[in-house]
Automatic annotation (TrEMBL):
Lineage of origin: Bacteria, Pseudomonadati, Verrucomicrobiota, Verrucomicrobiia, Verrucomicrobiales
Any GO BP: DNA-templated DNA replication
Gene Ontology cellular component list: DNA polymerase III complex
Gene3D superfamilies per record: P-loop containing nucleotide triphosphate hydrolases (3.40.50.300)
Descriptive protein name: DNA polymerase III subunit delta
InterPro entries from the UniProt entry: DNA_Rep/Repair_Clamp_Loader (IPR050238), P-loop_NTPase (IPR027417)
Amino acid sequence: MAYTSDRAFEMICAAHERGRLAHAFLISGAPGSGKEELAARLIQHVNGAKDAGADLFGDPVAVEVPPLDDLESGWVRVIRPRMKSRRVGVDEIRNLEHTLHLAAPGGAFKVGVIVDADRMNDQAANAFLKTLEEPPRNTLLLLLTANPQRLLTTIVSRCVRLPLLGGRALLADGGEDLVNALNRAAVKGFGTPIAALHLKGVFSEFLAQCRQEADATAKAAEKEETAAYRDATDGAWLKEREAFHKAAAEVEYLDSRTRLFDVLTAWMADLMRLKVKSGGLDFPDSASVLAPIAEAENETKLLQRMEALDALRRTLETNAFEPLAIEVGFLKAFG
C-alpha cells in the first residue's frame, strides 16, 4: 500500500510517541512525491521541533519545514550522489557511521539520510548493511529512492517500507521533453508510414541519449574503482568489475527504456481519452495539440494502435533485435 506524504508522517509520529519507532525507513516514490520534505519533517519531529503557536484566530500555525540539506548538522548527515559517476561511495558511508557512533547531546536522535539510496556502489551498500544490522542507540536512518528495486534485498528487508503516492514520474527525467517532441512530430503527420517512421526517429533519439548516459555513468564508476584499487588487487578482479559495470549500464538503460515507453503509452492513451471525452489526461497541456488528431482518428483504429504498442513492449522484453523491433512496432502502431 502506498501513502500520501502526510499520512506517512502521521504514522511514523504515532510510532515515535508509543516508543516503537523503527531505526530505518525506506521511503520510495516518484520524483515530486515528497520524499525529501517527509525526511525533513521527520528530522524536526524526532529532535523536538515545537509548534509555532497559534494565529490571531486561534488556529495552529504549522512549523516551517526547511530544505532537507539545511537541516544537516553535527548529528544529522545528508548523503547524496556527488561523485562524477553519480554514485554514493564507501567513504561517505563510513563518515556517516562515525557520526552515528558519537553521543548526541540531550538524547537527541542521530539521523542519516541517503538521497537516491539506490546509487550506493557495492562497497557502500555492504558497509551500510552493517550499520542496519547493528544500529547505534537513538539512530534514525532514512533511505530515499525512486528505484527501490535496485537496492540490495538484504537492505530492503531491514527497513520499514513507505512507498509514497503522487509525484510526476511521467514528466520527470526527460519525460516532458519526450512528450513535447512527440507532439511536434504528430502535428506534422499521423497515421501514415512516413509519420510512423518520423515518430520512431524521435523516440530512438531519446533511447540513444539514455544509452550514452548509462554508458558514461558506468565508465566513470569503473574509472574511479580502478584508480582506487589498482594497486591493491589483481587484474582478474578489475576485469570482473569491468563486466559488472557493463552489466550495470545495461540495467540502467533498460530502466530508462521502460520509463520512456511508459510516457509513450500514456501519450497514446491520452489520444483515446480525448476521442471518447473521458477526461483524466496524463498530459493536459498537450490536449490542444492532440485533440484534432484524436478527432480525425477512428476509435477502433486507436485501440489497435495501443494494442500494437503493447505488443512492441512485450517483444522488447525478449531477445529481439531492438532497432528492427522498434521500426516494425512503430509502423504497426502509428502507420
